[in-house]
């Protein structure tokens, strides 16, 4: 299996059409976007998707929206867009297990909204 490595800066172009989607007004008011932070979150732990044997070879892209908390943990992952619904739970479980060095603004750790595409197949 190819190694899954997510660079939040590298995926910006892939998700530019989805920016602003997938988050509630309350989340938008209490978190920051990539444009608003001074330091982007940095992945500390990124596990690979655990694809069951029955879905090996199934392909598709799943966009997962989530919040990186000030602690660096992933909060409230949800599917924003999917090319193959059978991969949704796998994508969400994978992202939920990740951890980050948090985003910063004004020298303080802050919550940041993130959208990442996971490619399968």
Beta fraction of the residues? 25-35%
Largest sheet: 3 strands, antiparallel
- Provide the structure class: alpha+beta
The sequence of SSEs as H and E is HHEEEHEEEE
Rg calculated over all Cα atoms = 14 Å
Helix content: 10-25%
Query: What best-fitting shape do the alpha-carbon axes yield?
Result: elongated
Across the major sheet, the strand order is: 3-2-7
DSSP E strands, number: 7
Terminal-residue CA separation: 9 Å
Number of helical stretches of at least 4 residues? 3
What is the arithmetic mean of pLDDT?
A: 87
Parts with pLDDT < 50 across at least 5 consecutive residues:
1-5, 7-14
Structure description:
- The chain is α+β, with helices and mostly antiparallel strands.
- Helix content is 16%, strand content 33%.
- A hairpin with a 5-residue loop joins β2 and β3 (74-82).
Per-chain topology:
Blueprint lengths: L11 H4 L9 H6 L11 E4 L14 E9 L5 E9 L5 H9 L2 E3 L1 E3 L2 E3 L1 E9 L1
Give a quick set of tags describing it.
single chain, 121 residues, alpha+beta, three-stranded antiparallel sheet, two-stranded antiparallel sheet, 16% helix, disordered N terminus
Write a brief structural summary.
With 121 residues, this protein is an alpha+beta fold.
